[in-house]
Amino acid sequence: MTDHTAATPDKPAGCTPAAAFARYVEPEVPVLYRVALTMAGQPVDAEDLVQDTLIRAYRAIDGFDGAHPRAWLLTILRNTHRNRARTRVPSLLHTGEQESQLLDRSGASRSAEDVVVDAQFEAVVAEALAALPTMHRVVVQLVDIDGLTYAEAAQALGVPRGTVMSRLHRARARIRTRLVAAGLVPRRSRP
Amino acid sequence: MTLMPLSKMTRTARCLRTSRVLQRYLDGELDDVPTAARVAEHLEECRRCGLHAATYRAIKQALRSGNRDIDDLALRRLRAFSQALTEPDGPQPAG
């Protein structure tokens, strides 16, 4: 059995599995759930995915050195999702419910005109997001909606950071093109 | 053959340089402080690039405002599940 009392640069000596779990894993539960929603699509699947991830993390906590807990957990989440996806139809589809939430904004302290323009802008962004190829859309969701860094999104997807950057760039350019076509942002030549 | 004026070339070069790092800059992923400062300066001085950046900021804002509400109950259940894992009589992970 692993000696969990051994210290590492990021893990203090005498850190029991329960203490390490409470210290490194429990604070990341909201992020895990948010990312799981993006990856699994449905809330009920996301909850199951996080539970499975937590169980795997608890089993492996002895061997975790305490460095970069979020990256470590996102890798576990990705592997868990992949294993689960093998036995079911992948569900990365953007749901109608998510789209309606995307349009739901409070209009406090803005004029009616502003609210209408904002709603049009957001509607086009929502449509453009839904129309993106899945791999591009997921990157936008992880970075712009779930708030992950490039490195964390790369960890969650199991791709290089450069791939996250290029997919993000292309996805946003496509969203912008739709906004230009809708007349909501000025057309201008690229530098 | 007419040569592009130096001032124009310089502006174009600065636009290109900004364009290459704009997404990273807007995402706060540009660790290089002098480069970030140069980008900020260029976005102030160049209307076209400033407009380009403003569009991407608005896209990010629109996406963020559509940030789905996290189900508090689901999160509470997951926190409880997580804490129960570390309790002696909690759900034991099967090997």
SSE order and pairing:
The complex is a heterodimer of chains A (191) and B (95).
Chain A: H1 17-25, H2 29-40, H3 43-60, H4 69-85, H5 96-102, H6 112-131, H7 134-145, H8 150-157, H9 161-181
Helix pairs in contact in A: 2-3, 2-4, 3-4, 4-8, 6-9, 7-9, 8-9
Chain B: H1 6-26, H2 33-45, H3 47-65, H4 72-85
Helix pairs in contact in B: 1-2, 1-3, 2-3
Order of helices and strands of chain B: HHHH
Which strand-content bin applies to the residues of chain B? under 5%
* Element pattern of chain A in H and E: HHHHHHHHH
Structural class of chain B: mainly alpha
The dominant shape of chain B is elongated
User: What structural category do the secondary elements of chain A indicate?
Assistant: mainly alpha
Average pLDDT of chain B? 83
Strand fraction band of chain A? under 5%
- DSSP helical segment count of chain A: 9
Total E-strand runs of chain B? 0
- Uncertain runs of chain B with pLDDT below 50, 5 residues or more? none
The largest sheet of chain A is: none
* Computed CA radius of gyration of chain A, to the nearest angstrom: 20 Å
Binned, the helix content of chain B reads: over 70%
Descriptive report:
- The complex is a heterodimer of chains A (191) and B (95).
- Chain A is mainly alpha-helical and 191 residues long.
- Chain A has helices at 17-25, 29-40, 43-60, 69-85, 96-102, 112-131, 134-145, 150-157, 161-181.
- In chain A, helix 2 packs across helix 3 (43-60).
- Chain A starts with 16 loop residues before the first helix and ends in a 10-residue tail after the last helix.
- Residues 89-110 of chain A have low confidence and may be disordered.
- Chain B is mainly α and 95 residues long.
- Chain B contains four helices and no strands.
- Chain B has helices spanning 6-26, 33-45, 47-65, 72-85.
- In chain B, helix 1 crosses helix 2 (33-45) and helix 1 (6-26) packs parallel to helix 3.
- The chains are: A mainly alpha (191), B mainly alpha (95).
